[in-house]
């Protein structure tokens, strides 16, 4: 494509009317993808309008601040959140489901809330299905991950096959016996002519007869001490590639000649075979033969955890949860009471205390969200939460959080309430897993307040205190000064 310079603006201008030199029309340009920092620009499903910074050494910055403040005062921006998403409470899964595709993409791209019901994290089941049927993009993160895993698996199997072949060659070399005995030396032919005329064959220094017996069978006797195994042939696109190569001999493949390659599940014909491969005549394509693929319906929904749901409802006000039995929107106090009740197994209303599992976990979740982190469930690594910088699409989680309650208030000491005991074996096991995954272990202690009569969520959450401790494995050879 030629470039024509615009002398008035000084910027290059693309000439799309010229044809390429070969005379063929050029293929249409692919649409450029949106950069990640633009696609995930908002850290939450709300928009803020901060004032610009004021610099004392630059008086002009004051006019910028006054100008922005006056514009927001005269024409105030819309109230936030401008869009309130709708979710449905699911008692079976104990989570909230969001079915609207626009809300699903908005909640994921603006804070990385929830996970796809048919996906590992990002709800892109529809994109994967379109890619599988050749209707959409050719690159999906999950498919790339599966392809890399298969490549690593095949690499390991190929390495194992080479190791088995090396072992077989070593065994053959060790089992070989040199013809140094008197009988073996006398049995050797004296000349090349004797070797041609001799009816005896030589195998590994041992003589065996190949003359036909009266019954018409051939007597082929060889030394049983040496059996040369053969490497099995591989079936390409026609067999089961899920099994690693085997070192055992495979004399026949489906009754065919051993050593023949099998391609696409059809072995080649032997030289003695009189059969010729049949050719199917080319059938011109018709409208009946062309099968049009039906339009794929997006059946995936976004699944929110209890902590994510309450943060969107209570902390941001960007989500409404509908009760499936009544069809009405559930209030914040109703959700708070329900989530506290469901944190016990089985759920019990009378057992709700300040050390409810939901209260402790949500206090930690809200704490890290307010600091700008993106907490995600960390059950894959045996912890409570994983902390991402910006989100899971930018980098792996750097910290793994384990939440522990701490009963430091005098009220609990007078009652003799003891925190759950953890052994050093448990702590070192969790820390070793995180070190192997290149993550830093963070122990978060939540100071449990004494019971109170209030049921307001804001009043209860203000009474919790959070303490963070970073823990690392100390290695003498890596920690020297």
What structural keywords apply?
481 residues, alpha+beta, five-stranded mixed beta sheet, 13 helices, elongated, disordered N terminus, tRNA_splic, nucleic acid binding
Layout: helices, strands, pairs:
Blueprint lengths: L2 E3 L6 E3 L21 H4 L20 H15 L10 E6 L4 E4 L2 H9 L5 E2 L8 H8 L8 H35 L6 H6 L4 H6 L2 E4 L2 E4 L25 E2 L25 E2 L38 E3 L1 H11 L2 E4 L9 H11 L14 H14 L3 E4 L7 E4 L10 E8 L3 H6 L8 H13 L3 E8 L9 H5 L3 E7 L10
Parallel strand pairs: 3-11, 8-9, 14-15
Antiparallel strand pairs: 1-2, 3-4, 4-10, 5-10, 6-7, 12-13, 13-14, 15-16
How many distinct helices?
13
Overall pLDDT score:
77
Q: What structural class results from the helix and strand content?
A: alpha+beta
Rg over alpha carbons: 37 Å
Helix content: 25-40%
Q: Give, in spatial order, the strands making up the sheet with the most strands.
A: 5-10-4-3-11
From N to C, what is the helix and strand string? EEHHEEHEHHHHEEEEEHEHHEEEHHEHE
Distance between the termini: 59 Å
Low-confidence stretches: 1-18, 202-243, 245-281, 285-290
Q: What fraction of the residues are assigned to beta strands by DSSP? A: 5-15%
Assembly state (oligomeric):
single chain
Characterize the main sheet: 5 strands, mixed
The shape, in one word, is: elongated
Pfam family, one: tRNA_int_endo
Active site: 388, 396, 439
EC number: 4.6.1.16
GO molecular function: nucleic acid binding; tRNA-intron lyase activity
